[in-house]
Amino acid sequence: METQAKFIALALCLTIAASPLAHAQNPDGPLPVPGDRDMSIRGQDRDQRRADGPGRKHGKPGAGRDGRNFGQGPGWNHNPGGLTSLTTVSGTVGQLLGNDDAILDGFTLNTGSGQATTVKFPPHLGEQVQKAVKVGSTVSVSGFTDKTPTGESLFRMNSLTIGKTTVMDAPPVHPVTPPTPLEVTTVTGKIADYRLDRGGRVNALVLDNKTVVSIPAHVAYQLTDLAKKGNTITVQGYPKQIHAGQVQLEKVNVIRASVLTINGQQYLVR
């Protein structure tokens, strides 16, 4: 009995001595067990910070990860622009329109209610649209009204119907074989004019040999005192490539400039 009592006393002494050491190693108290209240609260705080932080901007702070409380509808990242109402306009096709490189990407539609509506579609649909419509054709266009950064009102086409033919805004089809690599071409001519974008900024030089030299707007700004009308310029660059489905309304030789030579000085275009 006496020996057993000594063992019990020794065990109690060791337990008391080990207790401060355990608290010193874990000053915040015992580690939380996964799923307990402490872990749940910390996880909730972390979600609240992320909801208002740099990652996710939509939704209410503290909403759960299933996203049921975020935004105004189901889903995690509610995007106010995710749903766009479609409307249908009908009328007769007026003028076919092209972008800066004369690639067909729209037409005017006379709806009989004042000013004609400008209908726009992706350039890769140009071949389908050109086969389906002609000037004067009566068509129905489903889409939505949009505005450019300059405030111009456009009607973005989702589908076009004429008779039994419908052209849908589908993604471009990637070619089975890769396109042939473009070769650098060199052109020399005199600057006859400047081409402006819809914002009124110069985005190309038009040479007297009908070549259009495409340059970024910030480069055009730097060329103010170097490339004046009548000056001779030599351009090295790559010709504009017409992709599958695109139609060029008029033959325009467009070169994406990479090196310009003006008055004997070469300039790299970047």
Residue ranges: pLDDT <50 for 5 or more in a row?
Answer: 18-79
Element order, helices and strands? HHEEEHEEEEEEHEEE
DSSP helical segment count = 4
Mean pLDDT: 77
Largest sheet: 5 strands, mixed, barrel
Oligomer: single chain
Which strand-content bin applies to the residues? 25-35%
What form results from the Cα inertia axes?
Answer: elongated
How much helical structure, as a percent, in the residues? 10-25%
Q: What's the end-to-end separation, in Å?
A: 95 Å
Radius of gyration: 34 Å
E-strand count = 12
Structural class: alpha+beta
**How are the strands of the biggest sheet laid out side by side?**
1-2-3-5-4
Would you give an account of this structure?
The chain is of the alpha+beta class. It contains 4 helices and 12 strands; from the N terminus they run H-H-E-E-E-H-E-E-E-E-E-E-H-E-E-E. The chain has a 5-stranded mixed β-barrel with strand order 1-2-3-5-4. Strands 7-8-9-11-10 form a 5-stranded mixed beta barrel. Strand 1 (87-98) and strand 2 (104-110) form a beta hairpin. The chain is elongated and about 60 Å long. Mean pLDDT is 77; it is low at 18-79.
Write a brief caption for the model.
By secondary structure, this protein is an alpha+beta fold. 20% of the residues lie in helices and 34% in strands.
